[in-house]
Amino acid sequence: MQEERNREWELELLRVKSILDLLRLAASTDSVSVLIEFWSDSLNGRVIGTFANNYGITKLDVFSFTLYDGDDDGGFLVYRADETGEHYEFLRGLSSDKITFPVVKLFKEPAWFSERVKSGGD
């Protein structure tokens, strides 16, 4: 058991271009996706990301993220695609008629994220 804890592990950061790209990725997974939000001193911006299905290849060591510069806030992020296009919005509560992702807000940038960014893995 102790040997398993000391094993080397790697974290790959997959930066996507927009929050819609991130939500498409999270929606494509067969499991429940939870979004993580925190302020990144390393990137000087608000990071929203998830450990999600990596374009068809499920890898738990891939963190997909985007920098979000909007002021919107809420405990849930909703994704909707219809005939008018793709939309997202932050909500304070659940929405039953749309794909809704819980947002976990971290008080500080996780060490695993800042270490990986500093090593050139963005």
Q: Characterize the overall form.
A: globular
Number of DSSP strands? 7
SS element count, helices: 3
* Quaternary status: single chain
Strand content: 35-45%
Q: How big is the Rg?
A: 15 Å
For the record, give the distance between the C-alpha atoms at the N and C termini, rounded to a whole number: 32 Å
Please give the largest β-sheet. Answer: 7 strands, mixed
Counting helices, strands and paired strands, the structural category is alpha/beta
Average pLDDT number: 83
Strand order of the largest sheet: 1-4-3-2-7-5-6
What does this structure look like?
With 122 residues, this protein is an alpha/beta fold. The chain has one domain. The protein is built from 3 helices and 7 strands, in the order H-E-H-E-E-E-E-E-E-H. It has helices spanning 2-5, 19-27, 111-118; strands spanning 12-15, 35-40, 45-50, 62-67, 76-82, 85-91, 99-105. Strand 5 (76-82) and strand 6 form a beta hairpin.
Sum up the structure in keywords.
single chain, 122 residues, alpha/beta, seven-stranded mixed sheet, 3 helices, 17% helix
Task: Describe the SSE topology.
Blueprint: H1 2-5, E1 12-15, H2 19-27, E2 35-40, E3 45-50, E4 62-67, E5 76-82, E6 85-91, E7 99-105, H3 111-118
Parallel strand pairs: 1-4, 2-7
Antiparallel strand pairs: 2-3, 3-4, 5-6, 5-7
